[in-house]
Amino acid sequence: MTNTFTLADDAPCTVELVRKIRSKITTLLKKQGELQLQIDDLLLAVSEHLANLSEHGDGLICDLYWHSDSRTFECRDNGNSIEALLKGASLLDDSEQTFELQESGMGLSLITTLFPDYRYLAADDRQPRNRLLIRLPKPRHKLAVVDDDPVFLELLKAYLEADYDLVTYGSATEALAQNLLAQVSLVIADMHMPGFNGIELRKHLLDDDQTANTPFIFLTGDESATKRQSASELQIDDYLLKPINKARLIDTIERVLLRSQRIKSRLNAQIDSRINRSLWPKGPWQIGPVQADYAYVVAERGGGDFLFHHAYEDKQRFVLGDVMGHGEQAKFFAFSMSGFITGLSAASTEATECSAFLNRLSGLLCHSELMMNTLVTLQVIDIYEDGTVEICSAGHPPPFLLAKNAAATEVDVNGPLPGMSEDAHYQSVRLQLSKDQSLMFYTDGLVEALLMKDCHTALAETLNALQQQSTQVLNAGQLATELAFENRLLDDDVSVFSVFFSCQNDDSENIS
Question: InterPro entries recorded for this chain (predicted)?
Answer without folding.
Answer: Bact_Sigma-Reg, CheY-like_superfamily, HATPase_C_sf, HATPase_dom, PPM-type-like_dom_sf, PPM-type_phosphatase-like_dom, Sig_transdc_resp-reg_receiver
